[in-house]
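TA notes. Do not distribute before section.
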Amino acid sequence: MALGDFLVQSTYEPKQNYKFIVQMGSPTRMMVEAKTVSKPKLSFSVVELNSVDGTSVYFPASPSWDIVTLKFMAGGVDVMQATTDTDVSRGIVELLALAGYDKYGERQHKSDAADAFGEIIIRQINGDGNMVEEWTLINPFFESVSFGDLDYSSDSLSEITITVRYDHATVKFANGPAVVRAPTSFLS
């Protein structure tokens, strides 16, 4: 198939930003309250070497994974689980406790946080609900949690925003290789 031929195929469906699912927690829970999520992002630093004649030569350095930001609607009823006890605020507080953040003054352990989260999965889906692209964050932990702002002049929904740091990510594509592991050897 030539480049661009996919545009004239009747089965072509472009990825759409509003079709996604987030799974997190242990046991894994589908977060239907997820409003926005940033996909993983790799950043590459640059090493500059100066020569004696005053010119510079640049080389790529080791990659690093940027934080992922997730924004949730706070509260609501989970119709998929048929429970009324699904307030996202409560869930985040419970995850914080499982990760060891309820022990004031004690050192936090990365393994506790990673165990509390399990894996965070960001799955982009198509119109039929089938996976198109799936990112899995490995060893995630909280970098920040914002329980939102209150405002008498607004009737918008309450939001909770969390930023998550992780060691690395893997990605799967529909009709592609089973798992494509993004570069991690530089980070180990």
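Switch to the second chain here.
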Amino acid sequence: MEPDPTSEASPASPEREREREIMTWQLFGDSTRELASTIVASGFRPDLVLSIARGGLTVGGALAYALDVKNCFTINVEYYAGIDERMDLPVVLPPVPDPVAMANLNVLIADDVADTGHTLAMVNEFCHGHVAEVRSAVLYRKPWSVIEPDYVWRDTDRWIAFPWSAAGPVAGAGAA
């Protein structure tokens, strides 16, 4: 069961900073290479990398290069509204990948973290029945995830500060 976010320290407090897993760009590069090596060692050869936007975009791109996979798709799933703020269920946003285009391919789903695991489970279910084989790879897995990814770089129960999102949006950016 996931910790109650209302009982945690404020996002900017020193206590909260100690609770964070900090990923730097260097660590990201090292971790995706290690993850790719694990995938290769398992014997799985993906024909396509399906990245879950937004956090999985950088992970999927790095894995695709490391695994020499040129066929990359993206699926946009909205579940998080902010730190420790989730919607009731994950929602796939358009455009939705065409399952026919993935027929009979070995698909690697890439994401940054399996937190609750609901997003990864939804995308995994989306692929089943359409592809030859589907496996998933994440940088981090939380102990309460409802799905067990096939490939995991590290386990953590802490909030993760990724290099692509830790600084937040540029001032003035955002929806019009």
